[in-house]
Fold this sequence. Notes:
Layout: H1 4-8, H2 13-21, H3 24-35, H4 39-48, H5 55-63, H6 71-83, H7 90-97, H8 112-118, H9 121-128, E1 137-148, E2 154-165, E3 170-178, E4 189-194, E5 196-204, E6 209-220, E7 225-233, E8 242-247, E9 253-260, E10 268-274, E11 282-287, E12 295-300, E13 306-313
Parallel strand pairs: 1-9
Antiparallel strand pairs: 1-2, 2-7, 3-6, 4-7, 5-6, 8-13, 9-12, 10-11, 10-13
Helix pairs in contact: 2-3
Organism: Streptomyces cynarae
Protein name: XRE family transcriptional regulator
Amino acid sequence: MRHGTQHADVVPVELEAALRGGPFHVALRAAIAARGLPLQRVQHHLSRHGVRVGVTSLSYWQQGARRPQRPESLRAVRALEEILQLPDESLIRLLATSDEQPGPDRPASRSYRALVEASGVLEQLLAELEAPLDDGLITIGHHDRVRIGSRRELLARESHHIVRAHRDGVDRYIAVHHGDPGCAPERIAVHALENCRTGRVRRHHDAGLLVAELLFDTRLHSGDTFLFRYAFEDGTAGTSGEHVRGFRAPGGQYALQVRFDETALPVRCHRFTQQSAAAPRSGRQELRLSGLHHSVHLVEPRVRPGIVGICWDWD
Protein backbone atom coordinates (compact mmCIF):
# COMPACT_ATOMS: atom_id res chain seq x y z
CA MET A 1 0.00 0.00 0.00
CA ARG A 2 1.16 3.51 -0.72
CA HIS A 3 -1.08 5.68 1.43
CA GLY A 4 -2.15 6.35 5.00
CA THR A 5 -1.19 4.48 8.13
CA GLN A 6 -0.65 1.20 6.35
CA HIS A 7 2.25 2.70 4.40
CA ALA A 8 3.77 4.33 7.49
CA ASP A 9 3.90 0.92 9.21
CA VAL A 10 6.40 -0.41 6.66
CA VAL A 11 8.61 2.68 6.23
CA PRO A 12 11.95 2.43 8.10
CA VAL A 13 12.90 5.42 10.23
CA GLU A 14 15.84 6.31 7.95
CA LEU A 15 13.67 6.28 4.85
CA GLU A 16 10.96 8.31 6.52
CA ALA A 17 13.51 10.96 7.51
CA ALA A 18 15.00 11.01 3.98
CA LEU A 19 11.57 11.42 2.39
CA ARG A 20 10.83 14.27 4.74
CA GLY A 21 14.08 16.20 4.41
CA GLY A 22 15.84 14.86 1.31
CA PRO A 23 17.89 15.36 -0.67
CA PHE A 24 16.43 13.39 -3.54
CA HIS A 25 19.32 10.98 -4.10
CA VAL A 26 19.50 10.05 -0.41
CA ALA A 27 15.75 9.35 -0.33
CA LEU A 28 15.92 7.27 -3.51
CA ARG A 29 18.87 5.26 -2.26
CA ALA A 30 17.13 4.65 1.09
CA ALA A 31 13.92 3.57 -0.65
CA ILE A 32 15.70 1.10 -2.91
CA ALA A 33 17.65 -0.30 0.04
CA ALA A 34 14.48 -0.59 2.14
CA ARG A 35 12.79 -2.71 -0.52
CA GLY A 36 15.93 -4.82 -1.04
CA LEU A 37 15.82 -4.46 -4.82
CA PRO A 38 18.97 -4.61 -6.98
CA LEU A 39 19.04 -1.96 -9.69
CA GLN A 40 18.45 -4.55 -12.40
CA ARG A 41 15.13 -5.45 -10.76
CA VAL A 42 14.19 -1.79 -10.42
CA GLN A 43 14.89 -1.35 -14.13
CA HIS A 44 12.73 -4.41 -14.88
CA HIS A 45 9.81 -3.00 -12.88
CA LEU A 46 10.16 0.34 -14.66
CA SER A 47 10.00 -1.37 -18.05
CA ARG A 48 6.73 -3.02 -16.97
CA HIS A 49 5.42 0.51 -16.34
CA GLY A 50 6.41 1.45 -19.89
CA VAL A 51 9.42 3.52 -18.81
CA ARG A 52 12.93 2.82 -20.10
CA VAL A 53 15.78 3.85 -17.82
CA GLY A 54 19.25 2.31 -17.78
CA VAL A 55 20.84 0.79 -14.71
CA THR A 56 23.64 3.33 -15.04
CA SER A 57 21.18 6.23 -14.86
CA LEU A 58 19.55 4.74 -11.77
CA SER A 59 22.98 4.39 -10.20
CA TYR A 60 23.81 8.02 -11.05
CA TRP A 61 20.50 9.17 -9.54
CA GLN A 62 20.95 7.38 -6.23
CA GLN A 63 24.59 8.52 -5.94
CA GLY A 64 23.70 12.17 -6.61
CA ALA A 65 25.91 12.34 -9.69
CA ARG A 66 22.94 12.95 -12.02
CA ARG A 67 19.47 14.40 -11.50
CA PRO A 68 16.33 13.31 -13.40
CA GLN A 69 14.74 16.29 -15.14
CA ARG A 70 13.78 15.20 -18.66
CA PRO A 71 10.08 14.34 -19.15
CA GLU A 72 10.85 10.63 -19.55
CA SER A 73 13.01 10.74 -16.42
CA LEU A 74 10.25 12.41 -14.41
CA ARG A 75 7.86 9.69 -15.58
CA ALA A 76 10.36 7.20 -14.21
CA VAL A 77 10.46 8.98 -10.85
CA ARG A 78 6.66 8.82 -10.54
CA ALA A 79 6.78 5.13 -11.43
CA LEU A 80 9.50 4.61 -8.81
CA GLU A 81 7.17 6.03 -6.16
CA GLU A 82 4.74 3.21 -6.94
CA ILE A 83 7.35 0.48 -7.39
CA LEU A 84 9.07 1.38 -4.10
CA GLN A 85 5.71 1.81 -2.30
CA LEU A 86 6.24 5.48 -1.49
CA PRO A 87 3.66 8.22 -0.95
CA ASP A 88 2.49 10.04 -4.07
CA GLU A 89 4.71 13.01 -5.04
CA SER A 90 7.28 12.18 -2.33
CA LEU A 91 10.27 11.93 -4.70
CA ILE A 92 8.95 14.52 -7.17
CA ARG A 93 8.56 16.98 -4.29
CA LEU A 94 12.20 16.53 -3.32
CA LEU A 95 13.27 17.26 -6.89
CA ALA A 96 11.09 20.37 -7.03
CA THR A 97 12.32 21.77 -3.70
CA SER A 98 16.01 21.00 -4.18
CA ASP A 99 18.40 23.94 -4.18
CA GLU A 100 20.51 22.33 -6.87
CA GLN A 101 19.50 23.06 -10.43
CA PRO A 102 21.84 21.25 -12.84
CA GLY A 103 20.88 20.67 -16.45
CA PRO A 104 18.61 17.81 -17.50
CA ASP A 105 20.09 14.49 -16.39
CA ARG A 106 23.53 16.08 -16.36
CA PRO A 107 26.17 15.89 -13.63
CA ALA A 108 25.11 17.71 -10.48
CA SER A 109 27.30 20.44 -9.03
CA ARG A 110 29.18 17.80 -7.04
CA SER A 111 30.57 15.12 -9.32
CA TYR A 112 30.68 11.42 -8.58
CA ARG A 113 34.40 11.81 -7.91
CA ALA A 114 33.59 14.49 -5.31
CA LEU A 115 31.14 12.17 -3.60
CA VAL A 116 33.72 9.39 -3.47
CA GLU A 117 36.41 11.64 -2.05
CA ALA A 118 34.03 13.21 0.47
CA SER A 119 33.12 9.75 1.75
CA GLY A 120 36.65 9.17 3.03
CA VAL A 121 36.90 5.85 1.17
CA LEU A 122 40.03 6.87 -0.74
CA GLU A 123 41.81 7.90 2.45
CA GLN A 124 40.83 4.58 4.02
CA LEU A 125 42.28 2.56 1.14
CA LEU A 126 45.47 4.63 1.05
CA ALA A 127 45.88 4.08 4.79
CA GLU A 128 45.58 0.32 4.28
CA LEU A 129 48.52 0.54 1.87
CA GLU A 130 50.43 2.76 4.31
CA ALA A 131 50.76 5.38 1.58
CA PRO A 132 52.21 8.70 2.82
CA LEU A 133 50.67 11.98 1.69
CA ASP A 134 54.02 12.84 0.09
CA ASP A 135 55.13 9.89 -2.03
CA GLY A 136 58.57 11.41 -2.60
CA LEU A 137 58.00 11.92 -6.34
CA ILE A 138 57.72 15.01 -8.50
CA THR A 139 55.90 14.62 -11.82
CA ILE A 140 57.94 15.72 -14.82
CA GLY A 141 55.54 14.35 -17.43
CA HIS A 142 52.27 12.44 -17.27
CA HIS A 143 50.19 11.18 -20.20
CA ASP A 144 46.81 9.46 -19.75
CA ARG A 145 45.18 7.65 -22.69
CA VAL A 146 41.53 6.78 -22.13
CA ARG A 147 39.47 4.52 -24.40
CA ILE A 148 35.67 4.68 -24.62
CA GLY A 149 33.98 1.63 -26.09
CA SER A 150 31.10 0.93 -28.44
CA ARG A 151 28.65 0.86 -25.52
CA ARG A 152 29.87 4.32 -24.50
CA GLU A 153 31.62 2.72 -21.54
CA LEU A 154 35.05 3.42 -20.08
CA LEU A 155 37.10 0.55 -21.50
CA ALA A 156 40.57 1.34 -20.21
CA ARG A 157 43.06 3.95 -19.10
CA GLU A 158 46.79 3.72 -19.77
CA SER A 159 49.14 6.04 -17.88
CA HIS A 160 52.71 6.94 -18.77
CA HIS A 161 54.68 8.71 -16.00
CA ILE A 162 58.06 10.40 -15.88
CA VAL A 163 58.99 11.32 -12.31
CA ARG A 164 61.91 12.62 -10.26
CA ALA A 165 62.55 11.54 -6.67
CA HIS A 166 63.04 14.36 -4.15
CA ARG A 167 64.22 12.01 -1.37
CA ASP A 168 66.13 8.76 -1.11
CA GLY A 169 64.55 5.33 -0.98
CA VAL A 170 61.42 5.81 -3.11
CA ASP A 171 60.50 2.47 -4.68
CA ARG A 172 56.77 2.58 -5.42
CA TYR A 173 53.82 4.57 -6.69
CA ILE A 174 50.15 4.35 -5.67
CA ALA A 175 47.78 4.41 -8.65
CA VAL A 176 44.11 5.27 -8.17
CA HIS A 177 41.24 4.38 -10.49
CA HIS A 178 37.78 5.93 -10.07
CA GLY A 179 35.29 3.85 -12.03
CA ASP A 180 32.04 5.27 -13.33
CA PRO A 181 28.87 4.76 -11.25
CA GLY A 182 27.75 1.15 -11.43
CA CYS A 183 31.21 -0.25 -12.10
CA ALA A 184 32.46 -3.50 -10.56
CA PRO A 185 35.93 -2.91 -9.05
CA GLU A 186 36.36 -6.65 -8.46
CA ARG A 187 36.36 -7.11 -12.25
CA ILE A 188 38.68 -4.18 -13.01
CA ALA A 189 42.24 -5.32 -13.76
CA VAL A 190 45.47 -3.39 -13.22
CA HIS A 191 48.42 -4.07 -15.54
CA ALA A 192 52.02 -3.08 -14.83
CA LEU A 193 53.33 -2.39 -18.34
CA GLU A 194 56.86 -1.04 -18.01
CA ASN A 195 59.48 -0.66 -15.25
CA CYS A 196 57.09 -1.67 -12.48
CA ARG A 197 55.14 -4.63 -11.09
CA THR A 198 51.84 -4.85 -9.29
CA GLY A 199 51.94 -5.03 -5.51
CA ARG A 200 48.99 -4.83 -3.14
CA VAL A 201 45.58 -3.89 -4.56
CA ARG A 202 42.59 -2.60 -2.62
CA ARG A 203 39.04 -2.27 -3.95
CA HIS A 204 35.83 -0.69 -2.66
CA HIS A 205 32.69 -1.83 -4.48
CA ASP A 206 30.21 0.83 -3.35
CA ALA A 207 32.60 3.69 -4.14
CA GLY A 208 33.72 2.19 -7.45
CA LEU A 209 37.32 2.62 -6.40
CA LEU A 210 40.51 0.66 -7.00
CA VAL A 211 43.91 1.53 -5.49
CA ALA A 212 47.01 -0.33 -6.68
CA GLU A 213 50.60 -0.35 -5.47
CA LEU A 214 53.12 -0.27 -8.33
CA LEU A 215 56.56 -1.45 -7.24
CA PHE A 216 59.66 -0.16 -9.03
CA ASP A 217 62.56 -2.46 -9.87
CA THR A 218 64.96 -0.11 -8.04
CA ARG A 219 65.18 2.26 -5.09
CA LEU A 220 65.55 5.82 -6.27
CA HIS A 221 68.01 8.35 -4.88
CA SER A 222 67.09 12.00 -4.55
CA GLY A 223 67.31 13.59 -7.99
CA ASP A 224 66.89 10.31 -9.90
CA THR A 225 64.37 10.25 -12.73
CA PHE A 226 62.21 7.24 -13.50
CA LEU A 227 59.78 6.24 -16.24
CA PHE A 228 56.97 3.71 -15.82
CA ARG A 229 53.67 2.70 -17.43
CA TYR A 230 50.56 0.97 -16.15
CA ALA A 231 46.93 0.52 -17.18
CA PHE A 232 43.50 -0.16 -15.75
CA GLU A 233 41.21 -2.41 -17.79
CA ASP A 234 37.61 -1.55 -16.90
CA GLY A 235 34.55 -1.87 -19.15
CA THR A 236 32.31 -2.80 -16.20
CA ALA A 237 30.06 0.27 -15.95
CA GLY A 238 27.51 1.90 -18.23
CA THR A 239 27.65 5.17 -20.12
CA SER A 240 30.69 7.32 -19.36
CA GLY A 241 30.47 11.10 -19.56
CA GLU A 242 33.83 12.43 -18.38
CA HIS A 243 37.36 11.69 -17.28
CA VAL A 244 39.22 13.74 -14.69
CA ARG A 245 42.65 13.75 -13.07
CA GLY A 246 43.39 15.31 -9.71
CA PHE A 247 46.75 16.72 -8.58
CA ARG A 248 47.73 17.32 -4.97
CA ALA A 249 50.96 19.15 -5.78
CA PRO A 250 52.36 21.23 -8.65
CA GLY A 251 54.29 19.36 -11.32
CA GLY A 252 55.30 19.21 -14.95
CA GLN A 253 53.35 18.56 -18.12
CA TYR A 254 50.09 16.62 -18.15
CA ALA A 255 48.31 15.37 -21.27
CA LEU A 256 44.93 13.64 -21.37
CA GLN A 257 43.71 11.94 -24.54
CA VAL A 258 40.24 10.39 -24.83
CA ARG A 259 39.61 8.12 -27.81
CA PHE A 260 36.10 7.01 -28.80
CA ASP A 261 34.95 3.92 -30.66
CA GLU A 262 34.03 4.87 -34.22
CA THR A 263 30.52 3.43 -33.73
CA ALA A 264 29.82 5.62 -30.67
CA LEU A 265 30.91 9.23 -31.09
CA PRO A 266 29.87 12.08 -28.79
CA VAL A 267 28.17 15.17 -30.17
CA ARG A 268 30.46 17.58 -28.28
CA CYS A 269 33.44 17.55 -25.91
CA HIS A 270 34.80 20.13 -23.48
CA ARG A 271 37.82 20.52 -21.25
CA PHE A 272 37.45 22.02 -17.79
CA THR A 273 39.32 22.69 -14.56
CA GLN A 274 38.36 22.68 -10.88
CA GLN A 275 40.19 23.92 -7.80
CA SER A 276 38.85 20.91 -5.89
CA ALA A 277 36.39 18.06 -6.43
CA ALA A 278 33.60 20.00 -4.72
CA ALA A 279 34.38 23.36 -6.41
CA PRO A 280 32.53 24.69 -9.48
CA ARG A 281 34.03 23.97 -12.88
CA SER A 282 35.76 26.70 -14.85
CA GLY A 283 38.04 27.12 -17.85
CA ARG A 284 35.51 25.40 -20.07
CA GLN A 285 36.70 25.07 -23.67
CA GLU A 286 35.22 23.07 -26.56
CA LEU A 287 37.38 20.33 -28.07
CA ARG A 288 37.05 18.96 -31.59
CA LEU A 289 37.26 15.26 -32.40
CA SER A 290 40.16 14.26 -34.67
CA GLY A 291 38.96 12.82 -37.94
CA LEU A 292 40.95 9.59 -38.16
CA HIS A 293 41.30 8.39 -34.57
CA HIS A 294 38.14 9.98 -33.11
CA SER A 295 39.95 11.47 -30.14
CA VAL A 296 40.22 14.70 -28.19
CA HIS A 297 42.99 15.84 -25.88
CA LEU A 298 44.19 18.53 -23.53
CA VAL A 299 47.69 19.54 -22.48
CA GLU A 300 48.64 21.36 -19.29
CA PRO A 301 52.27 22.59 -19.59
CA ARG A 302 52.61 22.80 -15.80
CA VAL A 303 49.98 21.34 -13.52
CA ARG A 304 48.79 23.02 -10.34
CA PRO A 305 46.93 21.50 -7.39
CA GLY A 306 43.37 20.80 -8.46
CA ILE A 307 41.55 18.92 -11.18
CA VAL A 308 41.60 18.96 -14.98
CA GLY A 309 39.32 16.89 -17.15
CA ILE A 310 37.35 16.32 -20.31
CA CYS A 311 33.58 15.81 -20.43
CA TRP A 312 31.35 14.92 -23.38
CA ASP A 313 27.70 14.78 -24.41
CA TRP A 314 26.21 11.85 -26.29
CA ASP A 315 23.01 13.46 -27.57
